[in-house]
Amino acid sequence: MSQDQHTFQRAVSASLLGLAIQLAVSGMLLLLGLRLDSALVTIAMFHAIGGTLLWVALAVVYQQHKLERIEALEADELAKRHGTDSSIFSTSAEDLSVARRRLGRLQKWALPVVSFVTAGFLVGIGIWQFVARFDLLSAKPMMSDQLDHDPKLDSIAGADAFGNEGVLLALFGGVAFVMFIVSRYVAGMAKVKEWQMLRGGAGYLMGVCLVCAMLALGYGLLLLPSPVSIVLTYMVAIVPAFMALIGLEMLLNLVLDVYRPRKVGELPRPAFDSRLLSFLTSPESIARSINDAINYQFGFEITHSWFWQLFTRALPALVLFSGAVLMSMSSLVFVDDGDQAVITSFGQLDQRVLEPGVHVKAPWPFASAQSYTVGRVQSVSIGSDIVMIPGEAILWDNKHSETEPIHLIVAPLETTVGEQDPADESDGNGTTRAVTPSVALIDIEVNLHYQVSDLIQYLTHNDDPVRRLEALGNAELSRYLLSQTIDEWLSTSRRETGQELLRRIQDACEKEKLGVEVIHVSAASIHPPRDVASAFHEVIKAEHQRQILVDEARATEIATLVGAAGSVEEAEAIYTMIESARSLSGERAAAMAVQIERSLTRAGGEAAVVLAEAHGDRWQHENTELAAAMRFPQELAAYRAEPGVYRLREFLKVLLEESRKAKVYLILADPERFTVRFKLDEPASALPGLDPTATN
């Protein structure tokens, strides 16, 4: 094709057409994003806006090409009119090439700047949207019997999109079709050497077309009898990642173009001309690239051989035959022992349950089969919902879980469920004040073992049966914990926890038609929160100390009673008799005292010993006094017979008794030269045995 202004005028028109389509699609996505409040449509809008600048650059560059061609034609006319040797033309030819110099500057600086800005926009917006919307990937898949959607799913697709899925399908499908036609048209023009820069715009337009087609597919899947939302959910991450990937490729192309050798007069390939997107606009280039790779590997033109030609002619039949074989194989369903399978046809669940063995169904994609484990006992954890640390002992005050447990409420110590807990109390002056009810918390880890009993109920009545079972188990556990206090849970009530919870959870599963049978429920651990476990230990320690003191007092009591009366029973009987005697008087009191004394003597304990000693002392005193009384008349007769002799004898007797207590010191020295000094204020310095404070 000869290069003239009309050639580049068509390129300018194609660029303006692409710009108009890009702006129209961006505006439509902007309005839809605001109307639906959809995160996904907003991301698609950012992707569409990213291509507007490159279309502007293409239009400006091709317009400058057009001006350069007009300038070249005018220069040729001057050359023909005045001749090439004309001094006027030879001196002014370079000055007349203004458009050519401006075109060179656009190709050297403007196209790389536009590529860099576009790549930076795609990478920045792609990473920002990927990070900001990443939490939406956990949106709950929508089921056919679900009336309320997950708020995350509403944020992805737009709350107003549900109910208008058909309109959105037609809208995005139509836009994708128009963009596909325009992209293919521009890509066809890009096969011409002068228009090859249009390939970058056509590729970007095809990328936006692909995003709109995926939007149409996502909203179309919501129209199925069993809506599927997984496409819309994953597009929240796929589209930003796609934007970032295209932007990174543009940056890589920009760096590689700096070192790429250039030929004189060669049209540059802009960095925004994505090689990845070019595969979408020119799919035939993929087959050509594959053929070139095969020929390169074999070292000769194998694609031109008769075998390759025969293989390519038979390839469609081979593909159809392989597809038929695969579809036939997909008609067989193998169910393992202990499993059951169900069949889904066009999104509808077949009520027939497949037992272990080989079964036949409609081929894929008309029907699909899914196996479930029903014969094996499975388990879930309810209660504190913790992850145990392997090998760590479960103690009250140690960290034995990788996650923090959830504290559950139990009945307070004052009241239990069913009793009236006072809401206020009086202060004695006729007024009342509010009373804050006490709250007790506990950590409990419960293992629930179950088995699927009805697979159809298990699949149809709940979108997530395991999570529903956990919710039922936690609800029944919370209600059950409110029936008794924390002291009872930590002691006597723990033994009955498993059986009672099993009955309650099984009743709830049957009421909800969950389709499971609860096999066993066991409490792995029941303990107070770890932060307050030390306080419980102190209470338990105090209880133990109190019990020890009680036991010691009881032992002392028994020892005292046994020591006093020979046995506890005898001591208690005698004590009862003593208490009864306190209210008696006269002869009855004396008779009771005699009976008590006899009982004590018969018991043979310490009381009997004391009584015996008392009797002995009494007998000794009585005889001593009797002897003294009998000796007095004899002493009186002796005194009357000889008073002097009697007094002398008694004096000597007293002197003899007192002299036995006196101390005698023998001093073997000259009395005139011997002096004795006593320091009587310090008894320790006196002679041994001398009491300086004594007075005689």
Task: Characterise this structure.
This protein has 696 residues and is an alpha+beta fold. Among the domains are: 5-284, no CATH class; 378-417 and 438-528, Band 7 domain (Tetrahydropterin Synthase, Chain A, 2-Layer Sandwich); 538-604, no CATH class. It contains 21 helices and eleven strands. Strands 6, 7, 10 and 11 form a four-stranded antiparallel beta sheet that branches. A hairpin with a 5-residue loop joins strand 8 (424-426) and strand 9 (432-434). Mean pLDDT is 77; it is low at 86-91, 143-148, 415-427 and 690-696.
Short description:
It is built from 21 helices and 11 strands.
* Broad structural category: alpha+beta
Q: Over the alpha carbons, how many angstroms does the gyration radius reach?
A: 56 Å
Number of beta strands: 11
Kindly report how far apart the N and C termini lie: 160 Å
**Biggest sheet descriptor:** 4 strands, antiparallel
Look at the structure and give the mean pLDDT: 77
What shape does the CA trace take?
elongated
Helix content: 55-70%
Low-confidence stretches: 86-91, 143-148, 415-427, 690-696
Q: DSSP helix count?
A: 21
Residue fraction in strands: 5-15%
Keywords:
alpha+beta, about 60% helix, three-stranded antiparallel beta sheet, about 10% strand, disordered C terminus, about 700 residues, single chain, Tetrahydropterin Synthase, Chain A
